[in-house]
UniProtKB/TrEMBL annotation:
<protein>
    <submittedName>
        <fullName>GDP dissociation inhibitor</fullName>
    </submittedName>
</protein>
<dbReference type="InterPro" id="IPR036188">
    <property type="entry name" value="FAD/NAD-bd_sf"/>
</dbReference>
<dbReference type="Pfam" id="PF13450">
    <property type="entry name" value="NAD_binding_8"/>
</dbReference>
Amino acid sequence: MRIGIVGGGLGGLLTTALLSKNHDVVVFEKLPFVGGRFTNINYKGFQLTTGALHMIPHGNDGYLAKLLRECGCNVKIINSNPDGLFRVNGKDYAYKDLFNLVGLKDKLKALKMAANLKMGNVDKSISFGEFLESVELALKVGNAFTGWALSLTAYETPMEEIIEMAKNYHKFGGPGVPIGGCKGVIDELVRVIKNNNGVIKVECEVKGIEIEDDKAYIIGEEFNEEFDVVVSNLSPKLTEKISNVKIIKGKEPKPSKGIKICVATKEGLIKHNGVLFTPECERINGLNQVTNVDISLAPEGYHLVMTHQTQLTNNVKKEIDLGLEDIENLFNGKDYEILHIQSYRDEWPVNHASNGTDLDNVINDRLYLVGDGVKGKGGIEVEGIAMGVMKVVEHINLLNKTN
Ligand SMILES: Cc1cc2nc3c(=O)[nH]c(=O)nc-3n(C[C@H](O)[C@H](O)[C@H](O)COP(=O)(O)OP(=O)(O)OC[C@H]3O[C@@H](n4cnc5c(N)ncnc54)[C@H](O)[C@@H]3O)c2cc1C
């Protein structure tokens, strides 16, 4: 089949790489570079990013890693060990040790919660915040986790999503960092697509998607190309806006917003390669120091620390100032330099659909959606994208067989 892919973000490129084995594929990307919110920006020798924090939520064992291997990408992903620690009262604790920081009554409550969550024995209709709120520290820790991983507060996160995430965590484990950062993944996807004779067109903005009974068309200012199938890597809302198909039939997906601050430090802030969750910060939910995995992500003699925070109010300046105050407290007298502050919202958010508000990937036999507006259930960030891509690729390959 001839397949057109609109958008060269992680979702679009992963779909293209998988389909390029058996189909003719063409990617249309509006920017001069591919990778969307998952690629590097070189700034003074530091590998900053267009979005992601150089982390893959289930590391070398999750959905994304599996699909990368399946399409022939050689990406080395180093699993974090420990997955994450939690800074409470200035000290870093493993998850299991947090239970000892509260009184006996709260400890029993928290242990019961953890056991119920592991067994899926919880009310699916409530939020994660409601589930945790009877133990103050548990709610703070929950907020740090959802803020870091989903750019949502615990109260904004549906319990149903948390149950699925817990299942994935027990199946695949915690995060990992790809060597070369986000761009390490994107470069390999591009290599595979080109090896399979796929075509990637940059600076090629798509203005229209026309779906007819027997064909589909991708239209720009100076082109109108015919395809058997179109895969859109744009948000469901934008895809609907430029196409002749009604996509959002029920509730609109709700985007999640966030702020990332990149910090240079000679001394380093943490010794491990996992996440440092910061439940006691005013705004920062967590941070990582990716140079503990790959020193090439910063100039010689430096570490790169990336912090993330949910955007809680619409006053972005105030949100950033509170984040900077947190950083000052976290560094506690150590030398550091703020490299870059990025806020993510509107057309360039953390997620086009916050977890629990994603739409389905399959619109009809000719039009499919991939990306973070259509993640699989319980799929954190790029793992959720990979789950959606898997579904689309299976559907298209089945369609090809039956036609
Ligand atoms: C601050 C922050 C931190 C994050 N941290 C992580 C993390 O550590 N780990 C993780 O797994 N995820 C993380 N994420 C989320 C992850 O970066 C995104 O979910 C993912 O990159 C989105 O990929 P996508 O393919 O859905 O969309 P995009 O990357 O947005 O790709 C869509 C592409 O379509 C192109 N496009 C748009 N309109 C048109 C048009 N009309 N014509 C042609 N092309 C068009 C865009 O230019 C873009 O390249 C983070 C996100 C942010 C913002």
